[in-house]
Amino acid sequence: MGTSLKTDGSSKKQVLLASCIFMGLGHIIYLKQYLKGILFAVVEVFMLFMSPKLLNMLKDMIELSRWYKGITPAYTRMIDGLLAIAIIAFFVVLYIVSVRSALSSYQDFCLDGRVKTNKESMQGVGGAAFPFFGLAPALVLIVVFVIVPLVFSILTGFTNWTENVNPTPGTRVGWVGLDNYFEMFGGDATWFGAFGRVAIWTVLWGVLSTFTCYMGGMVLAVLLYEAKLKITPVLRAILILPYAVPSILTVQIWSKLLYIYGPVNKLLRALGIIDQDVSWMTDPEHVTRVKVICILINMWVGVPYFMLLITGQMTAISQDVYEAAMIDGANKLQVFTSITLPLVIYQTAPLIILSFTHNINNFGAIYFLTGGSPGVADSTTTQAGSTDILVTWIYKLTVGNGEYGMAAVLAMLVFLVMAPFAIWNFRNTKSYKEGEL
Predict the structure, then answer these.
(1) Using the 8-state DSSP alphabet, how is residue 187 labeled?
(2) Residue ranges in 22-170 assigned as alpha helix (H)
(3) What phi-psi label fits residue 331: left (phi over 0), alpha (psi between -120 and 50 degrees) or beta?
(4) Is the dihedral of CA 175, 178, 184, 190 positive or negative?
(5) Measuring CA to CA, how many Å separate 91 from each of 60, 98, 145, 154, 389?
(6) Where exactly are the structural domains of the chain?
(7) What is residue 127's predicted lDDT score, i.e. its pLDDT?
(8) CA separation (Å) from 141 to 132, 171, 239, 423?
(9) How far apart are the C-alpha atoms of 189 and 163, rounded to whole Å?
(10) CB neighbours of 191 closer than 8 A, spacing ≥ 6?
């Protein structure tokens, strides 16, 4: 096989074949671009050197339940396997880049009638590949710290990984396929009942928390905006204080105030309103009351945010619009419903969606207020209380009970529900549509 190239394109197969056989071979044999070819070849030599280690990492991940003295834990083997897959994926991408580079150099040869020198070829790499090498560090960090943990969480849902206090004797972490999904979504009445109860309350919590905070902020913003009082800035500053204080601290204070022996019960007894202490947050016979209290306390934290947001949007509306409406005979209620409200909702709609997704995953508001209490009949098995939302249930399953497999199923569900909201909101931003910030 000759190493000379023809300018009519008939040598393309030779260059392609050599580049596919070994990285950089086409550059070295046909294109005489030795430096570039050697760099590509070094990458493949390194991968060949590392291949036994990478294959063992993949084997350990596949044979997850295999056990012998000195072997690393199952979750470590799973992470090692995912890292091996990521390294192999990077190598495949570089292999494709090397082949495309050789074909591109051959096309330039067909057009110019000469092979570029090593200096010219490397200058071309410095220009064309600069974005790739510039983004490579960020891409590596994204793969290691975002994609690998995400895939790890997904794969955990297909294992029986558990660290219960009293695990079944002889139990090892291994692949169980879709067993966890079948058990969660109908195979086991206890788990399915707990999932349905928590999922419904999670959606209700997200909707009601967002609606009450938004409408509360709307009412306060309108009242303060229309009042035209000199002390309005002072009142706004006072109302902002609950938002300025860390929400976890605020929730913890409320939980202490509503404790069965707390100040609220003492005050109500002193006023003669109640005869005995009330379990505001732990009474299993009044679950609805507990949930309503959770929503009201969340309003205390969330209303100031929307008050500030809506106030800013209202001040941005031109006064000419209001004056024109008043000249046409519209009263204040008509002006609000026909002008202020539609414009404010239009401007704040993306933030309402973000607030909904935030409330769906509002771990602190539930966990530090009620801890998921009061409990129900299946709480001993599933760890799911009456006020638990999906994210707090996931936390209790993992940290409290070591049920990582079942928790991963729930985490996957939350991801599938929340990801479309986040993607939709991002695709509707100006920076995405126009390609600028």
Answers:
(1) I
(2) 25-29, 34-62, 74-112, 118-128, 130-142, 148-156
(3) beta
(4) negative
(5) 21, 10, 19, 24, 42
(6) 12-156, 180-434
(7) 54
(8) 14, 35, 41, 21
(9) 23
(10) 183, 184, 381, 382, 406
User: Number of C-alpha atoms within 13 angstroms, CB side, residue 292?
Assistant: 6
Q: What is the dihedral of CA 266, 271, 277, 280, to 10 degrees?
A: -90
Sign of CA dihedral 360, 365, 371, 375: negative
Q: Give the model confidence (pLDDT) of 65-95 as tens digits.
A: 765 545 667 888 889 999 999 999 999 988 9
Phi then psi for 20, rounded to 5 degrees? -75, -30
- What pLDDT score was predicted for residue 117? 65
d(CA 361, CA 390): 8
Residues 6+ apart with CB under 8 A from 322: 335, 339
Contact 131, 25 (CB under 8 A): no
pLDDT at res. 1:
45
3-state secondary structure at position 81:
helix
DSSP, res 24: T
pLDDT at residue 44 in the model: 92
Identify residue 310 by its one-letter amino acid code. I
Encode pLDDT of 49-61 as tens digits. 999 999 999 988 8
Residues of the chain with pLDDT under 50: 1-2, 69, 165-167, 169, 431, 435-437
- Residues of the chain above pLDDT 70, percent: 89
The set of residues, in sequence order, having a beta carbon less than 8 Å from that of 132 and lying 6+ positions away, is 97
Structure confidence by residue, pLDDT tens digits, 362-402? 898 899 888 888 888 778 888 888 999 999 999 999 887 88
180-434 is a CATH 1.10.3720.10 domain: yes
Q: Is 103 within 8 Å of 12 (Cβ atoms)?
A: yes
How far apart are the C-alpha atoms of 391 and 355, rounded to whole Å?
A: 16
CA atoms within 13 A on the CB side of 354: 11
